[in-house]
Amino acid sequence: MRGETGPDFIEALARGLDVIRAFGPNRPTMTLSEIAAASGLARPTARRMLLTLQELGYVRNNPNGFSLTPRILELGMAYIGSTSIWEIARPHLEKLVETTGESSSLAQLDGSDIVYVARVAVPKIITIAVRIGTRFPALQTSLGKVLLAALSPEELEKVLAEPSRSGINPLWKPDKAEYTRVLQEVRTKGWALTDEHLAPGIRSVAAPVRDGSGGVVAALNISVHAAETSLETLLGQYLPILLQTAAAISADWTLWQSRPEIVLTPNKS
Questions:
Q1: Helices then strands (H, E): number in the chain?
Q2: What is the pTM of this model?
Q3: CA dist., res. 31 & res. 33, Å (int)
Q4: Which of 79, 81, 99, 186 would give a disulfide with 192, using CB separation of 3.0 to 4.6 Å?
Q5: In the Cβ-directed half-sphere of 82, how many Cα atoms lie within 13 Å?
Q6: How far is CA 188 from CA 150, 156, 158, 181, 196, in A?
Q7: For the residues of 185-244, what is the DSSP string, one character each?
Q8: What is the largest CA-CA distance in the chain?
Q9: Smallest Cα–Cα separation from 105: which of 251, 195, 207, 248?
């Protein structure tokens, strides 16, 4: 059931996206009935959406049901390509991971969730798989704390009023007084720590990535396994490197934003 929508809201487009979002790591192939149930659509509506997506090349019909095609990556890559944040951040993330031996990610806020937009990982046994496009509840992650702390009180309450679409049941469930205190600490320190707030064994520290005006456009983290890396190591050794890396990405992002636009005009000669 959707909330209130504006007069320009296109229901058919929203339903098509509902069908795409119905697929996931644990359900790469589904029958029509399964897709209808997962997307909350009537079976005839889900069928029309699937046939349209199939004609456009985003879905294929297999003997066992429907599945997404690699062409669906175009939708995500359009976002990454339009911001260039992955191209800018990648060499910095690679250097950070090489130095620390730990995984690093870049995320942005989407409602009350964070969404990973860049990641360089090392092989680790963790309780939750992470890849580009993965979303988690923002409050329970170091990345999310950094992004939420940058919001005004009015924006923060509006964002947190939205239900998470991550499907994750986090360990830490703070009341308003507790998360307000935590986010104020993040604003004061300039970085955020999460110690098994999302799931057992996951510990991370994050710092903001800013644009030329000083606004927070993303957050960068180092994530570790709590059984392997102590808080002393994470904060004493890795945090200073993380802060330097976030500052370097911010500087490069500012330069990219300030680049002169090149306008090509027809040759009249």
A1: 10, 9
A2: 0.72
A3: 5
A4: 186
A5: 6
A6: 11, 17, 22, 11, 22
A7: HHHHHSSEEEESSSSTTEEEEEEEEE-TTS-EEEEEEEEEETTTS-HHHIIIIIHHHHHH
A8: 70
A9: 207
Q: Please report, for residues 37, 172, 176, 197, the alpha-carbon distance to residue 169 in angstroms, rounded to integers and kept in the order given.
A: 21, 9, 18, 10
User: Do 58 and 72 form a contact (C-beta atoms < 8 A)?
Assistant: yes
Question: How far apart are alpha carbons 138 and 73 in whole angstroms?
Answer: 24
Structure tokens at 124: 């680790």
Eight-state DSSP code of residue 141 = S
Helix H or strand E encompassing 120: strand 113-120
Fold entry, domain 84-257: Beta-Lactamase (3.30.450)
Contact 16, 48 (CB under 8 A): no
Count of C-beta atoms within a 10 Å radius of residue 133: 13
Structure tokens at 84: 């260039």
Tell me the pLDDT of the chain (269 aa) as tens digits. Answer: 455 567 888 888 999 999 998 998 788 899 999 999 999 999 999 999 999 999 999 999 988 999 999 888 777 766 655 556 778 888 999 999 999 999 999 999 999 999 998 899 988 766 677 888 899 999 999 999 999 999 999 999 999 999 998 888 999 999 999 999 999 999 999 999 999 999 999 999 999 999 888 999 999 999 999 999 999 999 999 999 999 999 999 998 888 777 665 444 554 54
